[in-house]
Amino acid sequence: MSNQKKRNFQIEAFKHRVVVDPKYADKTWQILERAIHQIYNQDASGLSFEELYRNAYNMVLHKFGEKLYTGFIVTMTAHLKEKSKLIEAAQGGSFLEELNKKWNEHNKALEMIRDILMYMDRTYIESTKKTHVHPMGLSLWRDNVVHFTKIHTRLLNTLLDLVQKERTGEVIDRGLMRNVIKMFMDLGESVYQEDFEKPFLDASSEFYKVESQEFIESCDCGDYLKKAEKRLTEEIDRVGHYLDPKSEEKITSVVEKEMIANHMQRLVHMDNSGLVYMLLHDKYEDLGRMYNLFRRVTNGLLTVRDVMTSHLREMGKQLVTDPEKSKDPVEFVQRLLDERDKYDKVISTAFGNDKTFQNALNSSFEYFINLNARSPEFISLFVDDKLRKGIKGIVDVDVEVILDKVMMLFRYLQEKDVFEKYYKQHLAKRLLSGKTVSDDAERSLIVKLKTECGYQFTSKLEGMFTDMKTSEDTMRGFYGSHPELSEGPTLIVQVLTTGSWPTQPAVPCNLPAEVSVLCEKFRSYYLGTHTGRRLTWQTNMGTADIKAVFGKGQKHELNVSTFQMCVLMLFNNADRLSYKEIEQATEIPASDLKRCLQSLACVKGKNVIKKEPMSKDIGEEDSFYVNEKFTSKFYKVKIGTVVAQKETEPEKQETRQRVEEDRKPQIEAAIVRIMKSRKILDHNNIIAEVTKQLQPRFLANPTEIKKRIEALIERDFLERDSTDRKLYRYLA
Amino acid sequence: MDRIDHLFNHYANRSSSHLIDPEGIEELCSNLEVPHTDVRILMLAWKMKAEKQGYFTLEEWRRALKAMRADTISKLKKALPELEKEVRRPSNFADFYVYAFRYCLTEEKQKSIDIETICQLLDIVLGSTFRAQVDYFIDYLKIQNDYKVINMDQWLGFYRFCNEISFPDMSNYNPELAWPLILDNFFEWMREKQA
């Protein structure tokens, strides 16, 4: 019962009495040897596995493990030598098939033999640390078959040959390839790599070297890239079908190197088909392909990006410095917007919105936009054009889109303060002539500018809008309190707060009596409600609508400037007037008067006045009379121009000078701000900091900064350090 | 002491106030056999720490002559070479250079000196040691239009320039550093001439 030790059941199959017979081992081995032969000869069906296993077991048990092991090796080796002769004898295509067949047979045999010798595997081999049966079987195959000199090279060449055939378009037995190559893999990673993979990669490298050279001589860029892509896909496919997955990266590297990396420059720069051609002709597919292929190689995308950047810069530079293109500012800016749209589309469609390409696009635009000093002015004129009434078919949404695009260009400007100056001028003209397409659109742009540049940029602009609104209310009040004035000429006054509007010197001018009476009434009304203010009439900014009747009774309404009105009204009391008389009566300064008379007398279709002599220019001896024969198919004739125009050369100089003057205090303020907080700073750092602080408005010139520093030294805001003259010190 | 005062009175007796005035200085110069515009007179003024150009006070006179151990004209004359050596010592020259500029600020609150005077002053003060630099710079000052006057900062800048920058190659001059702008412009002008 409990005393009885439990005995483990052991099924000992067919245990018979073992007699240590010296010949025992030999006899047993012979049985096994014969069995191995039969197995190899595909004649194993009559064998009893169980009997063979027992024999092997007994040999090991009776300490004949070594004999068994050695015998196994010798026998197998002999067989394999024989097999390799057979394989070697195979001709042509059957070589590989024979090899494959023998390999499969060997594997099957090896498995069976391993099973029979399992006990030896687990005991004798374990303790003696010898190679196990299965790996030994593989090594024997490797040494006697694969590395058999007559097979080794031939095998490799056959395989490479097949790959080559497949590359040239022939169909090969992929299954066979897979099996043979798997054989290499089964024999061990180093066998695969040494005996197959490395030579394969070398041969592929050669192949692609030659092929890429051929292609590059005969194909254009787009076609070449298509071919390269095709080859790449093929190789990946090949790996998937009959190579070790680890080879994929290696073979694709070879293709990338030979087909792309080695020819990168030549491809990108190819005449009439390379990158520039593709960009110019919107070849999105080709560009996308180039992007995908080049990103695989070192510096591939860098190369593409560099060529794109230099092309953009060159194109941009030509665009902005071409005098033809600067004739029409609106065209100029539209062209810039179109180019930007175009390249934006390229980057989003073909380059996957790659940020580095976006940055290259932006930096290129920033570079060339600032090459033309008139860019800020032109952008303002473009905006002016879009915000004026009379653009057919423009809807609010469209205007928004355009303004957003304009903001993009604005960001590229280095001289944002110049833009501000022009924008203010143009906005003033728009507001005063009542020609803005919508108040909302104007305000929307101001909000965008404010977001971009801060409150100070736009605070004065907003003042302009307020004045317009307030003036409307004032007019209502004026006419409300003077009902008797509803008869007679109508006066519309805009009261502008100095400081919010671009400064204009007041120009003297004698208004016609009817008008000046009204003006006086307004003045007293206004000053009555606003004490302590001073009003100055800006006669050079006003307009007038006057009704005229000509010789044959033609009636027209003329829309003119205030100056022109003054001149025309004179002809109510005189048929003919000389220049000097007009000058005296109106007191308008000579240059303004000449311009005014020119627009009244010398412009075809608008010459309500005639001049003698009929020369092009206004001379001080000229005389003028009404053009009784004046005709126009329109009732309303517009003569005065208050439209914003591209500045003339002298005007441009003047504006530029004003901008430079405005910059001086800004630079000084920046210097003082920086020095106040740092107390001591060296020269180079001051320049850098000041430039950085002013960068949102304009690019500060180091020489100008130096001048301002010296001015501040003279005014005792700063001093040079007495020992180190590179340093400046803030003087409280 | 008496002899020094006595000597002073000799030159001061022409003016109504008890000072040696410009006329007196002229006489002094001829007695010393030194030209009126000679740098040694300026050096004498420096030694005196004279405050007002063209005038010497008794205190200033005493200061210099006592230090120079001169109580007669001939002794004063003999002491001049020694004075020059003293001023030209590097430790003193910078001070003398600054003094020379201040000495020419004749009006109250004046901070700058007109170009013509500066040219003369440069010649007197630096002419013997930095002949080439002074000559070229004077040429430049006369033809440029950016500056009508020179201030102390620019004056000192030029001295630094003479001492630190090899001339006429100016290979170690860098206009991007803290040199006064007028020297940057001078540098550009020189470069254009050399091209």
From TrEMBL, chain A:
Cullin family profile domain sequence ranges: 374-601
PROSITE patterns noted in UniProt: CULLIN_2
One of the Pfam families matching this protein, by short name: Cullin_Nedd8
InterPro entries: Cullin, Cullin-like_AB, Cullin_homology, Cullin_homology_sf, Cullin_N, Cullin_neddylation_domain, Cullin_repeat-like_dom_sf, WH-like_DNA-bd_sf
PANTHER family linked to this entry: CULLIN
Family label: Belongs to the cullin family.
Annotated protein name in UniProt: Cullin-3A
Species of the source: Camelina sativa
TrEMBL record, chain B:
Annotated DCUN1 domain residues: 1-191
Record-linked SUPFAM superfamilies: EF-hand (SSF47473)
Pfam families for this protein: Cullin_binding (PF03556)
Transmembrane segments: none
Gene3D superfamilies hit by this protein: Cullin, PONY binding domain, EF-hand
PROSITE patterns membership: DCUN1
Chain's role: Neddylation of cullins play an essential role in the regulation of SCF-type complexes activity.
Protein's name in the database: Defective in cullin neddylation protein
Species, as recorded: Camelina sativa (False flax)
Lineage of the organism: Eukaryota, Viridiplantae, Streptophyta, Embryophyta, Tracheophyta
